[in-house]
Specification:
Chain A: InterPro entries: NIR_SIR_4Fe-4S, NiRdtase/SiRdtase_haem-b_fer, Nit/Sulf_reduc_fer-like_dom_sf, NO2/SO3_Rdtase_4Fe4S_dom, NO2/SO3_Rdtase_4Fe4S_sf. The complex is a heterodimer of chains A (about 550) and B (about 170). Chain A is of the alpha+beta class and about 550 residues long. Chain A contains 18 helices and 21 strands. Chain A folds into 4 domains: about 100 residues, Sulfite Reductase Hemoprotein, domain 2; about 170 residues, Sulfite Reductase Hemoprotein, domain 1 (2-Layer Sandwich); about 100 residues, Sulfite Reductase Hemoprotein, domain 2 (Alpha-Beta Complex); about 140 residues, Sulfite Reductase Hemoprotein, domain 1 (2-Layer Sandwich), CATH 3.30.413.10. Chain B is globular and about 55 Å long. The chains are: A alpha+beta (about 550), B alpha/beta (about 170). At the A-B interface, helix 1, helix 2, helix 5, helix 6 and helix 9 of A face helix 3, helix 4 and helix 6 of B.
């Protein structure tokens, strides 16, 4: 994991003092509300429906146990004792006081954390695969590049006032995409060319929101050394030519569409030719420097614990289910990747209490070299657990509520905070998630249904990524009342796709039954091997429509 | 006398007047003081204005620095307008004028210029700032100097931190 050097520390502290000064001037009335807005947003501070909300950055999802403990303490001292993990792998506090925020930032800086650029029209936190560095099939570890991007984008003087927010995601696996790169402003896929050299396939102009789009490829192979200069070229073209007259048409996807991907790529290429050999071009030594922070932990040489696990799973059915759903293969023999699901029915998806944060920190120290990763599905990952200790870990996780073995099932819902918290929302989302989780509480049935992504957003801003849910639910406002529109067939993985709207929207109380009807159609029509998405792609939307609106 | 902020946070009196685009059908009326005129009009009447130490130009945020290109150093002063402080195009314009076209003379930010944007302006090559008159000029120096270093290269720093770290 990246560790600050004296430069990073200095910048972090200087930033805290800057924001303290800005907050004081805002509270003293020297800054108008409009003037303070982008300053506080670029420090992650929103003013919400009930209270301010502070979004703390978790760069590419990596957290150390000391950072979790500090977060726990902050939620206790400055908030109501819980935190919320977001779909951009960040952490939100829902009840801080504006005047306390500089002190919170100072506490965060002590453990190498910050809230820089977690909101506002600037370059946001780069996200990546939570299994980075521990899966067998990745092209290379993406995290050194994510850190390189983090540093380049932090306080970038040219790109602090873009037309709109800007999100970059990176994926390194050849087989799967756990970072949903095709629905980001820039999606970077690590690849090797025919000569075996590392580089990126560059997607630009994907996104959710009001105009969902899959990001087209504008460059098939970008050598790794050119990463920053090429990003700078893309951002400069966007900063200069992106629309600023209409907030809803200001994302880069609209510009890419207007110019066509080819036209956009040409503009970027022209700009890039001017700057590609500038000192911003990465050197092999620089890449090596960042790579040196993401070395392997002190793994022991172990055999796979296959027999022991088979025995334990045979003896304990619930453990067996948990291993089947929440444990993934690790590149090292004898180790496993464990996902802690923050999706227990009755608790808003992604919410954790201060005590739970501390328990997770302890478990990370005991079982996984003191590190935790947060995922865009709002779960947490212990990436380096010994297979022969899985049973022990499961026994510890169960009373904490993190062993719900529903990973990737229908009830592993992605859900934004919605109308309960967010000032932008048209409708509540958390109660909808809970109602669905209650309706589908039979785990055997869930396993039989297999992998289904169900995503809920409380408004068009799509923080819950409803467009790319196999089943998507969107809160809409109809004459002051909350309704929900359903879409089917979205997919955030390789060959990403945007869901199709099923038809007229529904009242909140009807949603569990509507979902049940959709699931029934799938169960009746599927062939043995088909996932929900496969069946949908084969039979289309009409059979679902007929059943639901019958 | 109007005041402007300099890159070191100093405050100086200033005589330059920004001349707006003349209304339809009217011609440009030059004041007696040194004048910043719309860049398009300067280009249109270049043989008339070139070499004059009291005539500079201003860009609006949608205008492209490419239109001046190699002629930049014929001007004693170029200004870039920020119609709203949240319009970030001026930062790209400044960097292009400095880094691509090699502009060496004074580069000034005009328009909705506020204290908290000065640091970005300075890094992108602006060296004077027509701070909005209702703002506290005495705080400019502090706002320009919150940071003692930066991660990325820009007009003010050739080398990004990753190169300086390993030097």
């Amino acid at each position: 994991m990246y560790v600050y050097d004296e430069h990073d520390r200095k910048l972090a502290l200087e930033r805290v003092e800057q924001f303290r000064d800005q907050t004081q001037r805002a509270l003293a009335g020297e800054l108008s509300e409009e003037e303070f807005l982008p300053l506080r947003l670029q420090n992650g501070l929103y003013v919400q429906r009930l209270a301010p909300m502070l979004r703390i950055c978790v760069p590419y999802g990596m957290l150390r146990s000391d950072q979790l403990r500090r977060l726990a303490r902050i939620t206790r001292d400055y908030d109501k004792g819980y935190a919320h993990f977001t779909t951009r792998t960040n952490v939100q506090l829902n009840w801080p006081r504006i005047e306390d925020v500089p002190d919170i930032l100072a506490e965060l800086a002590e453990v190498e954390m910050h809230a820089n650029q977690t909101s506002g029209n600037c370059i946001r936190n780069t996200t990546t695969d939570p299994f980075s560095g521990v899966q067998a099939d990745e092209v290379a570890d993406p995290r050194p590049y994510c850190e390189i991007i983090r540093q380049w984008s932090t306080f970038h003087p040219e790109f602090a006032f873009l037309p709109r927010k800007f999100k970059i995601a990176m994926n390194a696996s050849e087989r799967t995409d756990r970072a949903a790169i095709q629905v980001h402003d820039i999606g970077l896929q690590l690849v090797r060319n025919d000569q075996g050299e590392l580089g990126f396939r560059v997607h630009v102009g994907g996104g959710l929101g009001r105009t969902p789009m899959i990001g087209p490829v504008i460059r098939e192979f970008l050598p790794e050394a050119d990463l920053l200069t090429y990003l700078e070229a893309i951002l400069r073209v966007y900063n200069r030519y992106g629309r600023r007259d209409n907030k809803f048409k200001a994302r880069i996807k609209i510009l890419v569409k207007a110019l066509t991907p080819e036209g956009f790529a040409e503009k970027v290429e022209t700009e890039w030719q001017h700057i590609k050999d500038s000192p911003t071009r990465l050197t092999p030594e620089a890449i090596e420097h960042y790579r040196s922070y993401f070395t392997e932990p002190a793994y022991e040489t172990l055999p796979d614990a296959s027999e022991l696990l088979a025995q334990q799973r045979f003896e304990n059915r619930e453990f067996d289910q948990w291993v089947a759903h929440n444990v993934d293969a690790h590149k090292r023999p004898g180790y496993a990747i464990v996902t802690l699901t923050l999706k227990k029915t009755g608790i808003p998806p992604g919410d954790v209490s201060d005590a739970q944060l501390e328990h997770i920190a302890d478990l990370a120290d005991e079982f996984s070299f003191g590190e935790v990763r947060s995922t865009h599905e709002q779960n947490l990952v212990l990436a380096d657990v010994r297979q022969d200790r899985l049973l022990e870990l499961w026994q510890r996780l169960r009373p904490l509520g993190f062993a719900t073995p529903n990973l990737n099932t229908l009830t592993d819902v992605i859900c934004c905070p919605g109308g309960d918290y967010c000032a932008l929302a048209n409708a509540k989302s958390i109660p909808v998630a809970e109602a669905i989780q209650r309706r589908f509480d039979d785990l055997d049935y869930l396993y039989d249904l297999g992998k289904i992504d169900l995503n809920i957003s409380g408004c068009m801003n799509a923080c819950g990524h409803h467009h790319v849910g196999n089943i998507g639910i969107l809160g809409v406002d109809k004459k002051g009342e909350e309704f929900y529109q359903i879409s089917l067939g979205g997919n955030s993985h390789h060959n990403a796709s945007i869901g199709k709207i099923l038809g007229p929207s529904f009242a909140q109380e009807d949603i569990p039954e509507v979902i049940a009807k959709i699931i029934d159609v799938y169960v009746e029509q599927r062939t043995e091997e088909e996932t929900f998405l496969d069946t949908y792609q084969r039979i289309g939307i009409d059979p679902f429509k007929e059943r639901v609106y019958a | 006398m109007p005041k402007i902020v300099t890159a070191d946070g100093g405050i100086r009196e200033d005589h330059w007047v920004v001349v707006p685009h003349p209304a339809e059908g009217e011609s440009l009326a030059l004041p007696t003081q040194p004048a910043l005129i719309p860049v398009r009009l300067w280009l249109a009447g270049r043989e008339h204005y070139a070499g004059r130490e009291d005539i500079g130009v201003w860009f609006d945020s949608h205008e492209e620095p490419e239109m001046l290109a190699d002629r930049v150093n014929e001007l004693p002063l170029i200004a870039v307008n920020f119609p709203k402080f949240s319009d970030g195009r001026g930062y790209s314009i400044a960097r292009l004028l400095r880094e691509r076209f090699g502009y060496r003379n004074e580069l000034r930010a005009i328009g909705d210029v506020l204290l908290d944007q000065l640091q970005f302006m300075k890094r992108c090559g602006f060296d004077t700032y027509a701070l909005r008159p209702d703002k506290d000029f005495s705080k400019a120096a502090r706002c320009l100097n919150f940071f003692s270093l930066a991660y990325q290269a820009a007009t003010d720093t050739d080398l990004p931190l990753f190169r300086r770290r390993l030097a």
